[in-house]
Design a protein that fits this description.
The complex is a heterodimer of chains A (about 160) and B (about 100). With about 160 residues, chain A is of the alpha+beta class. Chain A is built from 3 helices and 9 strands. The relative contact order of chain A is 0.20. Chain B has a domain of about 70 residues: Beta Barrel (OB fold (Dihydrolipoamide Acetyltransferase, E2P)), CATH 2.40.50.140. Classes of the chains: A alpha+beta (about 160), B alpha+beta (about 100).
Amino acid sequence: MDQRPLSLLHIHVKLLGFSLHSITPWPNNPSIFYLNGKRISRVEILGVVTSRDYKPNKFLRFTLDDGTHSITCILWLNHLTSPFFASRQPATLRVISDWAKCFADDIQFGKVARVRGRVSSYRGDLQVTVSDVFIERDPDAETLHRLDCISLGRRCYFV
Amino acid sequence: MSMADANDLGLQEYSVETAIAVIADHGATLKVDTQHLRELSFRIGSIFQFIGELNIQPNNEAILQARTGRNVDGIDLDLYYQSLQQLRQFQAKHMKNATT
């Protein structure tokens, strides 16, 4: 039987804000971070949108507050103009761009958002580069996310 | 988060003129300034979640200057409080480990 520890590198690790802010960068790769000695690159977070900085066709920067910490998120809206994405297929970029615009419309002040994305560092601060957004309407969504994070932390992330 | 039993639950008072709401939680009450939340519909007895800055007045009264607010009627409050208890234990252990 394979005894290697479970890799968290390519899954979205469910984290509370205070745990996310405890991760440290991996020296060899700026897109990989250490969570209690385990390498991670993607996270799933959930919280109330408490700030929103919208630059049309460039980005939407917003913060999520989950009661343990505020988390800065960046949603890029420049897929069709930035040279960074030039190597991607135009049809794929159009789809990604349309989705990003929908997500930007969904992210409104006071809404509870579940966000998936890549962890990155910007000017020394952690941020999440958004790949997926879901607006929660269930009043228990925050409670259930909190319990999920605690359970996964105890059983997997912090063992 | 505001809550409690049937008569001591959620929104207790709301003034349209001042936009001051009073919420109750386990017998304690808190004033909330909701002047920035004009789109929210305030119904006595409903349960609300607010995030904002807590201001202490000269008379030692605390008022929450709400930045966001939402109605969370239907929330499972027993589960909510249990999850907070679990969170405090988890945070205490996690933060202790992080500093040792």
